[in-house]
Amino acid sequence: MAAATLRKRWPGLAGSFVALALGVALISACGLLIGTTTGLDNPDPAAPSAKKLLSFMAGMAGFVSVFVVASTFAFAVAGRRRESALLRAVGATPRQVRVLILGEALVVAVAASACGSLLGLAIAPLMARWLVSHEVAPEGFGIHPAPGPLLIAAGIGVVVALLGAYAAARRAGRVRPVEALNDAVVDRKVMTLGRWLFALAFLAVFVTVLLILITMPASMQKDPQLRDPRNMPVWALLIDILAIPAVALFAPLLVPPLVRLLTLPVPLASGAVGLLARQNALAAVRRTVSTATPVFLVVGLTASVVGSTAAFGDARAAQTRAALRAQYVVEPKGSGSLSEPALRHVKELPGARVTALGSALLTDLGGGVASGGAEAATTSATVVDGDLTAAWKVKTEAGSLADLKGPSVAVSTDLANANGWQRGDRLSAGLPDGTSVTLRVVAVVTPLLSLSEVLLPYDVVAAHLTDRAPATAYVTTEPGAPAPVLPDADRATVTAAATWGAAGDDPRARYDWIAMLAILGPAVLYALIAIVNTMMMSTGDRLRDFATLRLTGGNDRQVLSMVGVEALLTVATATALALLVTVGTQLSTMSLINHRILTDGTVLPFRLPWSVIAGSAAVGLALALASSLLPARLALRARALDLAGTRQ
């Protein structure tokens, strides 16, 4: 029966096939790239790890696909309530109805997962080229096709499809046989007990994770991924991901009052188009939620992630303005390090004090005590050539940065507290070329986003670095002295400190935006395609409704107007839900920043990314209108009597 149903009703499940195939393609592409990242990470310690970035991309793709596939299957099954009731009326048991739905989902999932895995082979090289062009991965980075990632992605696709169809199958099994006599479909009790439990669980996890990250218990500070303030954007992304399903699961409860609020002027308007659109949205809450989910994901994800990234950029800029003492910042054009002629030219300027900063990776700092495990044994350090206090206001809790000479090290307060280190302690470490060295702790300092948790003098690591040139030079000049001017051949730029801090030219800030685009881009593109997919499914499922309206006196213009108003109402409702989740995620991000980063009394004001919200909502509206009006216009070419006889 499942096979026969698929042959007859394949257009109704085509949307589920497309949604699942695209999700599997993204996951398989990320999996193929993850398998080739060993030894190919960017040597710049400030750059995001390619492996971690791809893991987040795969996780985000899986997260979005779960929502889209679940809502798509739920919509497809909800449109077959009368068919399920007919099966019950002729003797089918609830278990048989559930098995029928799950059998259809399994067939669709296997076919879609196979196609998605093959599509991932074509997508992966494009993603690799993008990572190389944005300097997240080195030249030569690419894929080595292997069956493992493809099979894992296909397996994930099948599991996601079955999980997404299970809830819908249970509802189909509970349909009463008497509902076969009903032509109208009105949703009742859309907030089931299971949905309540999951919604409250996600909300509780969201609040718990936020409180843990703000307070950061001592036991968690041993993990550098949790402790380092520069990793806070990653954990803000986790908070965003937890907040979105919490709001989405409460959507059936929130949609009716939002629809009523957004359609308050409808009773005052002339004509029945607005009233019909309003009542359709209120009567079929599950359909409204299913069609609104992709729009909600686009607007909510984009606004939350962009807003959080911008907030951390503002925090870095505010901290830079308060802590930077140097008047000018000298950087290479593009990425890489300063050339020796440029650095020499700056140091030879009359009356100039130059502090050059670079990066290095240490292994097993403190004999491995600082590592939260084998994979965390590498520690990023800022290499200081010159007087750090001439360039930055660095608050010391113990010791003095003037002693940062010879085999010495300065560490952040969080790193010292996590490992019980004090001024005067001696720590073993491995230098970049594998040489072992013993370093004496000469200072414990308050961390800054622009500096690493570990500060090293340049003369300790100079002979052990592959690239000995620093990445940035900070210049302090005499009052009234002109700005430094470099020859064009030096391929370096000189920026006033105030402008540099306000522009967010810190390499870490640039990499944060690159990581945001890499993680968010494929997921949002997938959700945009899902908008078209879901709206076309919704329109195709309502052919009998259109015929009824035409047979009762409505013309084609009125039918199309109703479809357009419903699409507008769907997008407006989704945007309102997205605004709700964005407010929550921005407040959470502000709490993280003000408690973990801006500890000097500076407070960032609360700000929403209105331009991003408006832009993403406009794109969603354009796609929703196009993907609903065009199929409706094509369907109206048929006679009303022919449409009235269409099977549902």
Kindly describe this structure.
The chain has 648 residues and is α+β, with helices and mostly antiparallel strands. The chain has helices at 2-34, 50-78, 81-89, 94-133, 147-173, 193-215, 224-227, 232-249, 251-262, 273-283, 285-323, 340-347, 388-391, 413-419, 458-461, 497-503, 507-540, 543-551, 556-596, 610-635, 640-644, and strands spanning 328-332, 353-363, 378-385, 396-399, 408-412, 426-430, 436-445, 454-457, 472-476, 492-496. Strands 1, 2, 3, 4, 5, 6, 7, 8, 9 and 10 form a ten-stranded mixed sheet that branches. Helices cover 60% and strands 10% of the residues. Strand 6 (426-430) and strand 7 (436-445) form a beta hairpin. Helix 9 crosses helix 11 and helix 10 crosses helix 19.
Topology:
Blueprint: H1 2-34, H2 50-78, H3 81-89, H4 94-133, H5 147-173, H6 193-215, H7 224-227, H8 232-249, H9 251-262, H10 273-283, H11 285-323, E1 328-332, H12 340-347, E2 353-363, E3 378-385, H13 388-391, E4 396-399, E5 408-412, H14 413-419, E6 426-430, E7 436-445, E8 454-457, H15 458-461, E9 472-476, E10 492-496, H16 497-503, H17 507-540, H18 543-551, H19 556-596, H20 610-635, H21 640-644
Parallel strand pairs: 3-8, 5-7
Antiparallel strand pairs: 1-9, 1-10, 2-3, 2-9, 4-7, 5-8, 6-7
Helix pairs in contact: 1-2, 1-4, 1-5, 1-17, 2-5, 2-11, 2-17, 4-5, 6-8, 6-19, 8-11, 8-19, 9-11, 9-19, 10-19, 11-16, 11-17, 11-19, 11-20, 17-20, 19-20
